[in-house]
Amino acid sequence: MIWVTDVQYITGYTVLVTFNTGEKKRVDLEYKMKNGVFLPLKKIDHFKRFSLKNDTITWENGADIAPESLYERGEKISQLL
């Protein structure tokens, strides 16, 4: 089972996600900002107001993304020792 242990804003709709495996991945979430609960996050100021809750990235409006999706879409950055 995979989960998020840390998330940091990079730029635009891109975040740096650290997983319980120690892996860090850069994840571009712009593809999510087209409709539904993610549409309000298209405003970058709203997007930046994420937090780590229930082992994944979440936003004030209730939007969240499954850790597995973040892991699959992410571009690997490094492996922690």
Can you describe what's shown?
The chain has 81 residues and is mainly β. It has one domain (4-79): NE0471-like N-terminal domain (NE0471 N-terminal domain-like, 2-Layer Sandwich), CATH 3.30.2020.10. Helix content is 14%, strand content 41%. The chain has two helices and six strands; from the N terminus they run E-E-E-H-E-E-H-E. The chain has helices at 44-47, 67-73, and strands at 4-11, 14-19, 23-28, 50-53, 56-59, 75-79. The strands form two sheets. A four-stranded antiparallel β-sheet has the order 1-2-3-6, with helices on one face. A hairpin with a 2-residue loop joins strand 4 and strand 5 (56-59). The longest helix has 7 residues, at 67-73. It is globular and about 30 Å long. The protein starts with a strand and ends with a strand. The model has no long low-confidence stretch (mean pLDDT 94).
Quick structural overview:
This protein is mainly beta and 81 residues long.
Write the CATH architecture name.
Answer: 2-Layer Sandwich
What is the radius of gyration?
A: 12 Å
**CATH top level assignment:** Alpha Beta
Secondary structure class reads: mainly beta
Q: Give a quick account of the main beta sheet: strands, pairing sense, barrel closure.
A: 4 strands, antiparallel
CATH fold-level assignment:
NE0471 N-terminal domain-like
